[in-house]
């Protein structure tokens, strides 16, 4: 187990160094930060002095080493557009994005898994057919279109939910949350549903396919021959083994919810990291782009590491194979 953890940590370190190198290249080849900071009217002496102050006159490998050291400390310099520390801007926006991804992820699991189980056990039922039809729409429709349709129906026509913003928030130390206010829940409902629909339909179809596969296995036939009830077979044996691969996909999708919430945050003007990144791209704000890239990579690496460890614990075949290998 310890060797497995160290192996995954070594792989994670290689991935993060590679991502840091890509982020560093952004600083080198996408615009000139000195020109952004001083403007077009800067004199050569001012440019030379600022390059020296920022360390841009040093060799590339020295700059990359300083970039790595600062990145480990969470420092990516100043925003070229806002003039504020990037770490502070990220810290202000991170709670909103994590909150939105968490609500969307929980919604996907709570709704998607029961729908997938029902669609597998009741294949010929009209409700099962309806679930499969709706899942095709959820996979096919683009996220921005789903968000616009939800705004049109539930905000414009019915007036049930607000169409933009985060609503009232509560500060808990350095963290802010809208989940402790009724107004915050009203604001997060439509963005969370928009972000969850694709993940929900994906989980539902995956659970259905895995459930049907498990129900055809020999040990399920043996359980039926022993006289076990359908409830014990379906939920005590089949569902338990179905959720092993689903857990892996769900972990990866959680990282995707955080990374690809950009469109949802833009449609609903949700004040998260995705909206901040999109604004940074518009103004070529390289420090924010690099920080966002490194942070998303770190989130994916951590989630993958947790999923691998859970998979190792849940699936005994991995432990047996590893012991046999030694």
Low-confidence stretches: none
CATH superfamily of the largest domain: MetI-like
Instruction: Please name the CATH architecture of the largest domain.
Output: Orthogonal Bundle
Helix content: over 70%
CATH topology (level 3) name of the largest domain: MetI-like fold
> What count of structural domains?
2
Largest beta-sheet details: 2 strands, antiparallel
Number of beta strands: 2
- What is the level 1 CATH name of the largest domain? Mainly Alpha
Largest sheet, spatial ordering of strands: 1-2
Summarize the helix and strand pattern as letters.
HHHHHHHEEHHHHHHH
Average pLDDT, to the nearest integer?
Answer: 79
Specify the number of helices: 14
Q: How far is the first residue's CA from the last residue's CA?
A: 12 Å
Instruction: Work out the strand percent.
Output: under 5%
**Secondary-structure class:** mainly alpha
Shape: globular
